[in-house]
Amino acid sequence: MVLEMNFIENDEPFIIAEMSGNHNHSIEKALKIVDLAAQCGVNAIKLQTYTPDTITLNVDDGDFFISDKSSLWQGTSLYKLYSKAYTPWEWHKEIFLRAAQRGIKCFSTPFDPSAVEFLEDLGCPCYKVASFENTDLPLIRVIASTGKPMIVSTGMATISDIDRMLNSAYGAGCSDITLLKCTSSYPASPANSNLLTIKHMKETFGTRVGISDHTLGIGAALASIPLGGRVIEKHFTDSRALGGVDSAFSMEPEEMSMLVRESKTVYQALGCVRYGITDEEKNSVHYRRSLYFTRDLKAGDTIGMNDVRSVRPGFGLSTEFIDIVRGRKVTKDVKMGTPVSWDLI
Question: Are residues 159 and 232 in the same domain?
Fold first, then answer.
């Protein structure tokens, strides 16, 4: 596969559909998700590259058991969860090829050096770093040493964490890094999203910024754009009803299509700081208020208080002159509905 040096090609919102483990261990479902993502108009589909053994230990209790009652995955071990969620490595090539055939980009999140090596053999054009790995500096350096663009979720990271991560990545050879604001809860609440961090992150670190959004719906994702966000990542599935480890906070095709469409609308609507009349408003100027005669007058008549009014359209004198016009005499006969002009006074 050809290396794409400009993975994110311009300043427009770049939409990433995260497949995660929503394929339910069916290659047919995985390929269907790619097809649907492409139909929705996303820019890229993202995978996660690990095996249960590369990401955790096969221990069913203690630290390795998910006991948090607020977790979607409470009551199982990490090993069992990842056994259910991982994407078999032998699928990757077929998924990458399907994405290319559908005209969208495909990349992945590696969780250890062996995954980076595997993805390099596939020609992976970009690497994502998950929030839980953004402090794993040895892994950061391995990924950065490929020279490929990196997209890093910043969930739970302090400013110091991000600074250390960036220094490690830049030092290891990566020059293109995007930081994504992320709230590492599943689903995340809007109240805990703190989107203003996006603008601050861009100003502080000088990178491209965006959001890895775990809230439901598209509101938070769209709100990131006026704050400078140019990359939006959302988990994606063909149907929440059919299940999947992340399906509860994943978007369905109709929602993803709406996100793609409305992100373009928001981006275009931002425009620039501008006052005054735009080209599209030129014809509307005529519908401003102006001064018009409200009854017929004969030449020499004095213009009374109720003989002129501020009305639409805007072909008469500006309304600011109404007190000057009243009490003057008309120079010729005028009919009701005539715009007031200086030559008539």
Answer: yes
- Residue-wise pLDDT for 162-188, tens only, equals 999 999 999 999 999 999 999 988 899
C-alpha torsion sign, points 274, 279, 281, 284: positive
Q: What is the pLDDT of residues 210-269, one digit of tens each?
A: 999 999 999 999 999 999 999 999 999 999 988 778 888 899 999 999 999 999 999 999
Domains identified in the chain, total number: 2
Q: Do residue 171 and residue 241 come from a single domain? A: yes
Residue with tokens 């302090």: 158
Q: Considering only CA atoms, which of 287, 286, 291, 318 is closest in space to residue 306? A: 291
Domain assignment present for 275: no
Q: Are residues 294 and 259 in the same domain?
A: no
Cβ neighbors of 51 (< 8 A, separation 6 or more) are 82, 86, 89
Question: Kind of pairing, strands 229-235 and 208-213?
Answer: parallel
Instruction: Give yes or no: residues 260 and 286 share one domain.
Output: no
- Give Cβ neighbours of residue 335 (< 8 Å, ≥ 6 apart): 293, 296
Position 176 in a domain = yes
Q: Where among 216, 243, 270 does a domain terminate? A: 270
116 within some domain? yes
User: Considering the entire predicted model, what is its pTM?
Assistant: 0.89
Parent domain of 176: 14-50+86-270
